């Protein structure tokens, strides 16, 4: 299967990129780099892709396993190298679950399945970064 994305220059430092979903989004540099800061930053989008990919896996497994979770969020904290080309060499991915009836073992299993088996973006990151996976349970 092939994905084809078109990213069109809008002038100055701004671009618009499409997605197979039919939606578009804007990419722009910050004022320090000659942009207006009116769009997403490319490297940060990679972190959103990573969290989103794994999050979809975990959300699907929460549903399949019929688990009770009031809230769920993923914090992605990445270290950028100092030298050009700058890239993420270390990434911490924290899964935070909130609820009064959290089944910790099953939720951890869902994360493990995403991290080790299902999430393609996680696999891509694994090729260039050291990943540190953490799980935090917030019981109500």
TrEMBL record:
Signal peptide: none annotated. SUPFAM superfamilies: OsmC-like. It comes from the Bacteria. It holds the Pfam family OsmC. Transmembrane segments: none annotated. InterPro entries: KH_dom-like_a/b, OsmC/Ohr_fam, OsmC/Ohrsf. PANTHER family: PROTEIN YHFA. This is OsmC family protein. The lineage of its organism: Bacteria, Pseudomonadati, Bacteroidota, Flavobacteriia, Flavobacteriales.
């Amino acid at each position: 299967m092939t994905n084809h994305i078109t990213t069109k220059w809008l002038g100055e430092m701004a671009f618009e990129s499409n997605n197979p979903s039919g939606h578009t989004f804007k990419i722009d540099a910050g004022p320090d780099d000659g942009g207006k800061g009116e769009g997403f930053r490319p490297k940060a989008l990679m972190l959103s892709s990573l969290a989103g990919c794994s999050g979809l896996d975990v959300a699907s497994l929460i549903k399949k396993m019929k688990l009770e979770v009031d809230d769920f969020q993923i914090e992605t904290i990445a270290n950028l190298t100092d030298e050009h080309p700058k890239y993420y060499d270390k990434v911490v991915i924290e899964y935070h679950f909130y609820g009064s009836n959290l089944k910790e073992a099953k939720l951890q299993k869902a994360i493990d399945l995403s991290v080790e088996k299902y999430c393609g973006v996680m696999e891509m990151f694994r090729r260039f970064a050291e990943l540190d996976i953490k799980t935090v349970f917030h019981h109500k």
